[in-house]
Amino acid sequence: TDDGAAPLAGLGTMVRFVLRRDCIRLPAWIIGHGLFVIYITAALPQLAPNERDLAGLTTLLTQPVGRMFTGPAIGLDDPTYERFFAAGYAPYLFILAALMNIFLVTRHTRAEEQSGRAELLRAGVLGRHTMLTATLLVAALANLAAGGVVTALTLGAGYPAHGSILVGAATGMTGMVFAGITAVTVQINEFSRAAAGMAGAVLGAAFVLRAVGDMAEVGGSALSWVSPLGWAAQTAPYVDNLWWPLALSAGLAAITIITAFALQDRRDFGASLVPPRPGNPRAHPVLGHPLGLAARLQRGGFLGWGFAILALGVIDGLFTQAMLDAGDAMPPELQAVFGSEQLLEGYIGFLGRFVAILTAAYVVYAIQTLRTEETTGRADAVLATAVSRPGWLGAHIVVIALGAMVMLVVTGIGTGIAAAAVTDEASLIGEVTLAHLATAPAVLVVLGLTAGFFGILPRLMTLIGWLAVAVIAIVELFGEMLDLPDWFRALSPLWHLPTVPVEDFDVAPFVILLGIAVATAVIGLAAFRRRQIHIR
Q: Which of 138, 133, 131 is nearest to 101 (CA)?
């Protein structure tokens, strides 16, 4: 409906409001871009003390599987630190910027309408397009800041100015493309998760198109140019320094943003262009049980995360032979990451632990569903029945734990099959699967920890969960390279588990960590029985 206010009435106030609400989230995303650049620019000289040593690493990126995973490998026939950074790691900055914008736009548009808060704001002097405009302006500021941080830090690393500015611009422009795409998906879908999921599917499709196109040949093929991620990579920073591909990104961002405003004019406030599918008039009997309801609520997240982790695992498995081919020429510093004497076994162990990090991230994401159910009042309707609080919370914990175990097993099997296919060693299927399963207690500890804080201090649950995932990732991925002290490494539950198959399986830490996971979950169940619902 139109309340007679100007379309952009209250824009300045809304911009300040969005910035105030995201005063922690947006700086965290931008700092994340910076930390990624700092780590890579510092790690490359550690892995290859001289630029000529990079030749042993380029095989990892120039092989077809390597190009699928990173980019078109432009300029790696004469590698330098900055070219290696742009070819192998800048594509992940583009993905990071895309994710930042997907979550930002969804959070301040469709999620606000879904919760009813936007209706309260529109009841004042606020224009029809004010919220979307304010969100996109904040997205532009965030992308400008992220691109500026990337540029400043690459310049600080001694990389050439032209290429550094181009990498920063490509990062920010890719972010704006997906801000525009998400601005469209929030008009189409009535629920924020569906809108974010659709935008995420577009990002996934862009990655696949770019990957297949780059696999075809070094430098990319025609299919690479179908993807906005491909446009950013084709700027070839530090090699050709092409600016014109970013015109394609700017054009798509403009088209999607204009489309979003046009679609917003065609729908009622709070509604969507595509109405949600009506449910069955009678619920399935399974939904009458807490476990069945929990499984239904967790299904979307499980399938989305599970498919993505499995796809990444298969790609890593296909990368096995390329890793072995590059083994002899690989610098000793990089060999040490996987085990210089047992490169294949070390790589298998690394894959299992890397998937464990991703699965731990899934359980944190999944348990946030509990907080959403509580704050929206849907948990009240369930708890008003004969379902007890421990039964409700415990059902979700069980479903999430089972989902995490399924992810580890299925990803292990899929990765093993891929590794066996490229190496002709069928025994790798079992070894890779066991390497994944050996990390299960660490994942369950993260689940137990977040469940414990949900019962005690729910407002800290998300922070503690993601902090635990960050600690595990830092210790596993950067511990050796940064020579982290043992006391910090001990904070990661994964550090206490042996790296199978490099090390023999040890029952003691496996059982102890399982006990910690169960104990923290029980504490959360007990605390949830006593605390007030909707506590902030």
A: 138
Q: Collapsing DSSP states into helix, strand and coil, what is residue 89?
A: coil
**Calpha distance 157→151 (Å, rounded):** 10
C-alpha distances (whole Å) from 18 to each of 26, 130, 134, 363, 371 are 10, 11, 7, 28, 22
Query: Is it true that the peptide bond before 27 is cis, omega within 30 degrees of 0?
Result: no
pLDDT tens column, 36-95:
899 889 888 877 778 777 777 777 777 776 787 788 989 988 889 999 999 988 998 999
Dihedral angle computed from the Cα positions of residues 315, 514, 458 and 20, in that order, rounded to the nearest 10 degrees: -30
What is the distance, to the nearest Å, from the Cα of residue 532 to the centroid of all Cα atoms in its chain? Answer: 32
List of E strands, 483-525 = none
Contact assessment for residue 404 and residue 436, using Cβ atoms and an 8 Å cutoff: no
pLDDT in tens, 102-156: 999 999 998 888 777 777 777 777 788 899 999 999 999 999 999 999 999 999 9
> Please, what's the b/e burial string for 202-238 (b: 16 or more CB within 10 A of its CB; e: otherwise)?
bbeebbebbbbbbbbebbbbebbbbbbbbbbbbbbbb
| pLDDT per position as a tens digit, 304-361 | 889 889 988 888 888 788 777 766 555 555 555 555 457 788 889 989 998 999 999 9
Sequence-separated (6 or more) residues with CB below 8 Å from residue 317: 351, 414, 415, 416, 417, 418, 419, 421, 422, 432
Cα distances from 406 to residues 177, 410, 411, 440, 491, in angstroms, run: 35, 6, 8, 10, 26
Nearest-angstrom CA–CA distance, 365 and 461: 11
Q: CA dihedral defined by 56, 62, 63, 69, rounded to 10 degrees?
A: 110
3-state class (DSSP) for residue 377:
coil
Q: Classify residue 246 as exposed, middle or buried by CB count within 10 Å of its CB (0-12, 13-18, 19+).
A: buried
Q: Measure the N-to-C terminal CA separation of the chain; round to a whole number of Å.
A: 33
Q: What is the pLDDT of residue 340?
A: 44
* E strands present in 260-300: none
Give the Cα-Cα-Cα angle 201, 203, 204 (nearest 5 degrees).
60
- Which residue type is seen at 89? Y
Q: 478 burial class (0-12, 13-18, 19+ CB within 10 angstroms)?
A: middle
CB contact set of 259 (below 8 Å; sequence gap of 6+): 180, 184
Nearest-angstrom CA–CA distance, 121 and 136: 18
For residues 106 and 198, give the distance between their C-alpha atoms in angstroms, rounded to a whole number: 11
Return the C-alpha torsion angle 160, 162, 164, 168, nearest 10.
180
What is the reported pTM? 0.79
The backbone torsions φ and ψ at residue 498, rounded to the nearest 5 degrees and listed phi first, read: -65, 150
Question: What span, in angstroms and rounded, lies between the C-alpha atoms of 173 and 247?
Answer: 9
Inter-residue contact 436 to 352 (CB < 8 Å)? yes
| Secondary element (H or E) of residue 157 | none
